[in-house]
């Protein structure tokens, strides 16, 4: 029978044999799969594993700094690259969801390729691909861990894609990846993290993306996600987040009439993201979130809760 301990032992041994003294580069996303793949590879080849963690400016509030710190704490040889300005400048004025994805995918490739070139003599590209990624190939919108794979369409392969590929998790399902991660000593908080899309908050800001909108959405999202944790609801939900709608509506504040933004909160149950149901969160919780968001986030005067299931709706709004 399969056990995580046996898996780690045999995989580390075979990675050592296969890779020898070569260098490997790997893109970390903050997600479960890339993190577990990195820790496994690090166990096998130590600092010959060079990890790259890119800030695209579209992550959750403080995510880049906090997760980078955690990676360093785990002993990983990781370089954090803050490319926020490149991504946000390139997105300016773009409203079309698929074009936004293409822009983000294209810049990611450029940034990753630049960084990969700085690792002299790298021979391998490590990836956190898991079994379902390979059978489903890439669904229409990508799939949670498809960031690197889904954007080959840029005219000639970037150099890092010419490297030999090593995918230590390619035979595993998600729950097995989590068990391997636990055996490797990775914190529960990281292993239980909700999926988060590669294009990040860009596809939760309907219409064009600006720095101001990103900041507003980061604040709203942080209140919602921290609220789920504080109320013990986080683990009952498969994925949650907030959408910034391209809508202004009238409100009152004191004696003043306001005309401000509206956010939609979304929380779903799912097993693989292919179908999903909205979660019946307690009204008291939603009431508290609505009050906190409207009181604490300037520019937002209305909160709605999304009660649509997939299909026919999707999880993300773009
Ligand atoms: P939808 O909105 O299609 O989302 O119901 C299903 C799952 O996929 C994630 N998602 C993406 N992940 N790149 C990604 O890496 C994308 O472009 C993308 N679009 C959607 C979404 O967060 C959900 O988990």
Question: In terms of topology, how is this protein built?
Answer:
Layout: H1 4-19, E1 23-28, H2 32-45, E2 49-55, H3 63-73, E3 78-82, H4 84-91, H5 97-118, E4 122-126, H6 131-135, E5 164-166, H7 174-183, H8 188-191, H9 211-230, E6 239-253, E7 256-269, E8 277-278, H10 283-296, E9 300-305
Parallel strand pairs: 1-2, 1-4, 2-3, 4-5, 7-9
Antiparallel strand pairs: 6-7, 7-8
Xanthosine-5'-monophosphate (XMP) is lined by residues 101, 141-144, 146-147, 195, 197-199, 239, 273, 310, 314-316.
Report what the structure shows.
With 318 residues, the protein is of the alpha/beta class. The protein has two domains: 4-191, Rossmann fold (3-Layer(aba) Sandwich); 210-305, GMP Synthetase, Chain A, domain 3 (2-Layer Sandwich). Helix content is 39%, strand content 20%. The chain has a five-stranded parallel β-sheet with strand order 3-2-1-4-5, with helices on both faces. A hairpin with a 2-residue loop joins strand 6 (239-253) and strand 7 (256-269). The longest helix is centred in the middle third of the chain and has 22 residues, at 97-118. It is globular. The model is unreliable at 138-154 (pLDDT under 50). The protein binds xanthosine-5'-monophosphate. Xanthosine-5'-monophosphate (XMP) binds at residues 101, 141-144, 146-147, 195, 197-199, 239, 273, 310, 314-316. Homodimer. Residues 2-193 form the GMPS ATP-PPase domain. Catalyzes the synthesis of GMP from XMP. It is an enzyme of class 6 (ligase). ATP binds at residues 29-35.
């Amino acid at each position: 029978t399969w056990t995580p301990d046996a898996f780690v032992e045999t995989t580390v041994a075979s990675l050592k044999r296969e890779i020898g003294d070569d260098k490997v580069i790997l893109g970390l996303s903050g997600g479960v799969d890339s993190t577990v793949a990195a820790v496994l590879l690090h166990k096998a080849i130590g600092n010959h594993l060079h990890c790259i963690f890119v800030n695209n400016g579209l992550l959750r509030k403080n995510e880049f700094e906090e997760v980078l710190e955690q990676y360093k704490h785990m002993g990983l040889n990781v370089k954090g690259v803050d490319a926020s300005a490149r991504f946000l400048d390139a997105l300016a004025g773009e409203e079309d969801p698929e074009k936004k994805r293409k822009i983000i995918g294209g810049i990611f490739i450029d940034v990753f390729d630049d960084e990969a070139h700085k690792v002299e003599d790298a021979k391998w590209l490590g990836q956190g691909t898991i079994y379902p990624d390979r059978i489903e190939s890439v669904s229409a919108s990508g799939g949670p861990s498809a960031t690197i794979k889904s954007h080959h369409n840029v005219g000639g392969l970037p150099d890092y894609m010419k490297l030999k590929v090593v995918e230590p998790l390619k035979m595993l399902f998600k729950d097995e990846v989590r068990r391997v991660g636990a055996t490797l000593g990775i914190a529960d908080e990281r292993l239980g993290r909700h999926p988060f899309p590669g294009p990040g908050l860009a596809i939760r800001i309907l219409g064009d993306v600006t720095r101001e909108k990103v900041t507003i959405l980061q604040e709203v999202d942080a209140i919602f996600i921290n609220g789920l944790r504080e109320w013990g609801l986080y683990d009952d939900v498969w994925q949650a987040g907030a959408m910034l709608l391209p809508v202004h509506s009238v409100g009152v504040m004191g004696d003043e009439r306001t005309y401000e933004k509206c956010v939609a909160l979304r929380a779903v149950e799912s097993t693989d993201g292919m179908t999903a149901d909205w979660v019946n969160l307690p009204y008291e919780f939603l009431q508290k979130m609505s009050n906190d968001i409207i009181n604490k986030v300037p520019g937002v005067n209305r909160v709605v809760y999304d009660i649509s299931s997939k299909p026919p709706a999707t999880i993300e709004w773009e």
